[in-house]
Design brief:
Layout (H helix, E strand, L loop, with lengths): L24 E2 L3 H7 L13 E4 L11 E4 L1 H8 L12 H4 L5 H16 L3 H9 L4 H12 L22 E3 L3 E3 L4 E3 L4 E2 L3 E2 L5 E6 L2 E6 L3 E3 L1
The chain binds zinc ion.
Zinc ion binds next to helix 2.
Protein name: PhnA domain protein
Organism: Aeromonas veronii
Pfam families: YjdM
Length: about 220
């Protein structure tokens, strides 16, 4: 599945913690940071990490996210930029005790094996996963034909038709001449063709809102 390239400007970094908005790209929190131990959970790079919600997950909490570096993220989001040798790192990370990491490793090895990388298939053959993690990993592969990307809010929570959301920042509504204030509740949202946008009524006007500036209510 494809994710659109993050088209945001990253705010100033503060150690390895920073906030950024964009699809599937959320603030890394202390729990994930502690679990990752300041190293990318996939390639062990000691770089700034961001939380990446494992696609096709039953939830978008820490248990279903991995803390990864920009190199891994870039290649996951843009599979056409994949550098095969970078993913040799999976021979270590596939042994992680964290199911989310196992799922990411399994799917990436599967993708590499599909490209004819024999070593990746060898690793897959050795890999051990609990049934639950295996089913989760396979859910991603089964849905591969369906290239619909979920619409997610600023926390990575999946938004559904009819949900209520609140704005997490003031937004100028172009053309309508007002500012939608931070904290405004928008009920009964509608999804659009673009996973980055939803539609909702603010001040009685139906407007398009950027999902990354919303929080599920
Ligand atoms: Zn990495």
């Amino acid at each position: 599945m494809l994710y659109s390239a993050p088209s945001f400007t990253r705010p100033a970094q503060c150690g390895t913690l920073y906030t950024s908005y964009g699809t599937n790209n959320m603030t890394i929190n202390a729990i994930l940071q502690a679990r990752a131990g300041a190293k990318c959970e996939l390639c062990s790079a000691e770089q700034a990490l961001t939380a990446f919600v494992v696609p096709h997950s039953p939830a978008s909490d820490d248990d279903h996210s991995v803390a990864i570096c920009d190199t891994c993220r870039g290649q996951l989001e843009q599979p056409d930029t994949l550098v095969v040798n970078h993913w040799r790192c999976l021979s270590d990370s596939m042994w992680s005790q964290v199911p989310a990491v196992q799922v990411m490793a399994w799917r990436q090895l599967k993708a590499l094996s599909g490209k004819g990388e024999v070593w990746a298939q060898d690793l897959l053959d050795m890999m051990y996963m609990e049934d639950e993690a295996k089913a989760w990993a396979e859910a991603g592969i089964a849905d591969e034909d369906d290239d619909s990307v979920p619409t997610v809010d600023s926390n990575g929570a999946v938004l559904q038709e009819g949900d209520s959301v609140t704005l997490i920042k003031d937004l100028d509504v172009k053309g309508a001449g007002f500012t939608a204030k931070r904290g405004t509740l928008v009920k009964g949202i509608r999804l659009t063709n673009n996973p980055l946008h939803i539609e909702g009524k603010v001040n009685g006007v139906q407007i398009v809102l950027v999902a990354a500036y919303l929080k599920k209510a």
